[in-house]
Design goal:
single chain, alpha/beta, Nucleotidyltransferase, domain 5, 2 domains, 9 helices, 12 strands, binds zinc ion
Length: 318
């Protein structure tokens, strides 16, 4: 059994564990430890934490790991392992030579992928897309990200930026400002915060009886109980996402669309609107494209990062 270290670097936490490959079946993730990223302390601090966590994971492993696969927030150049850009949520993370630093500290080969791409590769290869030749993976939570994966290869694009499905034009978002600076994008309508904002705009409560802010799970519960504002907010988000997914099927014609993230757990108001939006835009030959749930949860980026390392090594060897 070949064992690797898998790392997932997010804006709030860093998860690091062991990923063991088992011939023909889903890689086994074990001994995962999570620590705060403390991104506000700067890129150097984050790098030091990552190196510390990787070394600790190597110590926890019963056999010597063969390499380190990393999934990281920010724009990543998978060819070099560099973080080429990170937004203001991770100051100083852009410019980090992450892959080279990890190899220098451990002596192990290291590959780095953007976190959305790593998540998508994991789901495509071993999760909801296992056995399928192509998939579009879409994660809908506080933001919306995605990736198109064909024959085990992620479409990275010429700036390693491909897959920003949250930042495509969407009819329901006309005039709505987006986190990227544009207006009219899918994300502010269909991601979790957009659903909460619409619920409040429709007259729903901004806070729970105990004073904590309204959250998506409560809106979903209220929609199921018949609350009209909650139903309307979920329907608007589901319809908008469905329309964009239908459009994407016309473009890429994947064998399936894999949906993951907190928002896709929403109930029938959301999912029926999603299906309606999808069929409204998808051309007849792609209307039967299955929309399936992701199956790997938090393990997806760790598995995808290690899968990327193993496949890259294989390609170099050939
Ligand atoms: Zn945008």
């Amino acid at each position: 059994m070949a064992t690797y270290v898998g790392v997932d670097i997010g804006g709030t936490k860093i998860a690091c564990g062991l990923v063991s490959l088992v011939e023909g079946s889903v890689p086994v993730v074990s001994a995962v430890e999570k620590v705060p990223t403390d991104a506000q302390l700067g890129g150097k601090h984050v790098l030091a934490t990552v190196l510390e966590q990787v070394k600790a994971a190597i110590e926890r492993s019963q056999e010597k790991p063969l390499g380190v696969g990393i999934s990281s927030a920010g724009v990543v150049d998978p060819a070099t392992g560099d973080i080429t850009f990170a937004n203001e949520l991770m100051p100083g993370w852009g410019g980090t030579h992450l892959g080279a630093e990890v190899t220098a500290a451990t002596g192990l080969p290291c590959n780095v992928l953007n976190d959305v791409h790593a998540h998508a590769l994991g789901e495509a290869r071993w999760g909801g897309g296992k056995g399928l030749p192509s998939v579009l993976v879409v994660a809908v939570g506080t933001g919306i990200g995605g990736a198109y994966v064909e024959d085990g290869a992620i479409m990275l694009g010429s700036h390693n930026e491909a897959g920003h499905i949250g930042h495509v034009a969407c009819i329901a978002a006309a005039g709505v400002p987006c986190s990227c600076g544009a207006t009219g994008h899918l994300e502010p309508v269909a991601a979790g915060p957009g659903i909460i904002a619409e619920y409040i705009r429709q007259g729903g409560d901004a806070t729970l009886p105990d004073g904590t802010p309204m959250h998506g799970a409560e809106i979903d519960r209220r929609a199921a109980a018949g609350d009209e504002a909650a139903k309307a907010a979920e329907r608007r988000a589901g319809l908008a996402l469905g329309e964009v997914l239908g459009s994407m099927c016309n473009m890429f014609d994947p064998a399936a669309i894999i949906l993951s993230g907190s928002v896709v757990k929403c109930g029938p108001d959301w999912s029926e609107a999603l299906g309606q939006g999808f069929l409204g835009q998808a051309m007849p030959p792609v209307q039967d494209t299955p929309l399936v749930d992701g199956t790997l949860g938090d393990d997806a980026p760790l598995i995808g990062a290690v899968e990327n390392l193993v496949v890259s090594a294989y390609r170099e060897y050939r």
